[in-house]
Fold these 2 entries.
Entry 1:
Amino acid sequence: MSFDTIGLSADILRAVSEQGYSEPTPVQEQAIPVILERNDILAGAQTGTGKTAGFTLPLLEILSSEKKSGGKRPVRALVLTPTRELAAQVEESIKTYGKYTALKSCVIFGGVKIGPQINKLRSGVDILVATPGRLLDHIQQRTLDLSKVEILVLDEADRMLDMGFIRDIQKILAVLPKQRQNLLFSATFSNEIKTLAGKLLNSPVLIEVAKKNTASEMVSQIIYPVDKSRKRELLTTLIKSEKWFQVLVFARTKHGADRLASQLSRERVPAAAIHGNKSQGQRTRALEDFKNNKVQVLVATDIAARGIDIDQLPHVVNYELPNVPEDYVHRIGRTGRAGHEGQAVSLVCIDEKKLLNDIERLINQQIPKVIIDGFEPDPTIKAEPTKKTGGQRTRQKARPTRNANGENAPSNKNNSRRRNSKRPGSTESTGNNQQRRSNAKKR
Ligand code: AMP
């Protein structure tokens, strides 16, 4: 199928062709016509499949063809995303694909001043992209009217649930009109997603393009067994000897990410860190510098990396394996996107053997292991259990309170105060209204 016959009008097709897309990706081919027919959908599509255009293009088509007359523009489409980065990227796509339409869009998320967002909303917006916490701030402050929403999109819904957003989502649903079209995108179909879909969707069309928890075929994966104390040396050696540029490195903790970025920079490998304790400005700058090749390495924690969409990102390195095996799939999905090949390298020490087994069981595949000369693991070192860190998630139980970036917020009150005083925007996703209200005032 070509884009020309998929049901989009000339203004939108023109913007699509300017992006150089010759044909729709499988999720676009399936989702676009179904959404245009005004069906609800439940789409199982991982990031990198072209899912954003899969909902953005028909959304623009529907809203631009059904113009509402006179008065201030009401919000007619609401897109909810788990992270600020993803929200920003989705809105960027809306602007890109909608550049020849008269539709106005706006993105709102926490960690930045609320005032400019209020002004933008006041001026009238057709499509609103938001993270749940800041959206609720606006709802509570009555700076936003969602009573005219016709289409709701939940993007990366599994992540939103993982990050403890379910109550926020329920509160948002309560202020939306009952009659609306719902589009739910999720990389995985857990029982929680099925429950949410059951409540939210009306006779949905099921679209599934990527098999559950399968690693992209475009990504070659490799394990380099190495002692923990020599990981950094190995990483530097690989980056320098293989001449890797644009390397996204995953670290398990925020502190570890900072430390690794500084150490790499000292070794003349320009690096920046991105994680939940960085201000929005710092995060945006780090991402821009990485995209523009000003820094060679971006060290990220799992949640901060969510939504990072870089075309042709060639290398992902797991400096430490994630505690949650599904995160491995998300991590390596940052590369091998949109038909390009990518490489996912994991530096694995003896302590991570169990984590590796869990990952291999999940993806149902043995990852090739290669020992690099000079970095042979010391056989006398005994495994120690990996520490549970801020990135740890427990899937079955109620989620721990999380901060704006989905990283676990501290459970103890003293810690919590310390963190919040450092970063006033940090309770965006906690679901703690009182705290959110007081932070909103501060913001
Ligand atoms: P997404 O899964 O939405 O994060 O998109 C992944 C990447 O695919 C983005 O960088 C898009 O620019 C790109 N993309 C989206 N649609 C197409 C298409 N039809 N052809 C080629 N690339 C695309």
Entry 2:
Amino acid sequence: MKARIVTLPGDGVGPEVTAAAVAVLEAVAGHYGHDFAFAEHPIGGCAIDATGEPLPAATLEACQRADAVLLGAVGGPKWSDPNAPVRPEQGLLALRAGLGVYANLRPLAVHPALAALSPLKTEKLRGVDVLFVRELTGGAYFGAKTRGADAATDECKYTVAEIERVARRAFELARGRRRHVTSVDKANVLETSRLWRSTIARVAADYPDVGLEHQLVDSMAMLLLTQPSRYDVVVTENLFGDILTDEAAALAGSLGLLPSASLGEGSHGLYEPIHGSAPDIAGQGVANPVGAILSAALLLRHSLGLEAEAQAVEAAVAQVLEHGPRSRDLGGNAGTAAVLDAVRIALEDHAATSHAFFS
Ligand code: NAD
Ligand code: IPM
Ligand code: MN
């Protein structure tokens, strides 16, 4: 198949991990006979430096025209002055809004070979397989903001329609899994959370085959550590989802491992690792590319409908996590390039034995 993929490497380790993910997609194209055309555009701090804007209009237009978008990370100390008039992260938020990608899927799986890297006891990690569905285009991230000399505000607003569409997505996804949804809110304090809870409960009535439980976000932060294998699909609002998924990454062994897919209506999607620009290791060639590579697998699955290819990439990554080489965050000493090479070799083996290669 032919596909146009826009790449937005961004800042810090973004370009390093995005290059690895593109190399894997190119390998997939070669092995399975696809034609992927890549076009790179600026976003974030590097876009501010080049154009004054974190999301140049040409970047957004290219993303809107593409079949899928692969992003690295934005931000870094150079642009982090709290009084700066413009910030890299604004570019990412504008992109998510501009693409209408309201559902951010963040799968958490714990590879058995990495269990020792988690701060949790190994027996707690057995069977952990959670799909976080984070609402991505509403809440405090997008409400009105004010800043005065003595006070500042961030309005947190949700509409019923915004909650309903992400809820439906979560229930649909649960049907392809273990049929259980945990909705996380702060309904004991926040009005938006009370609307969230009642809307989720109403949507749940359309999915009688899927179980629903509500959980308050503070206790959920604790339960994720004490009973992580209890959860299947976890749906929550934007800010809670941001925080809980970084916490979840610690269960997997490193923030560098987790991918994400941001979806709206249709197959158009934005794919990015959940980690940031990692300024402490940027430019050293040591970033773990796995989160970005697994994001490319999600791109194959959700935007291009290439399930066999997505599974081949995931199997290749699993093989490398098991046998190495491992990057520094996983206790190894391999650089980004060595991990990428190992994934490419594993992928080649996989493709050579799969039917698609010969057909
Ligand atoms: P971070 O995710 O960049 O880094 C947190 C820690 O995890 C660091 O020690 C880092 O070295 C490590 N880490 C992250 N990715 C890694 C990888 N692939 N391999 C190995 N180690 C990895 O979070 P931060 O330091 O709080 O934020 C830095 C900047 O990134 C900020 O400007 C923030 O706004 C931005 N950020 C961007 C995104 C995004 O673009 N989607 C996401 C999160 C943070
Ligand atoms: C993420 C990041 C972003 C978020 C920032 C950089 C805007 O932390 O993708 O998780 O908070 O959504
Ligand atoms: Mn985050």
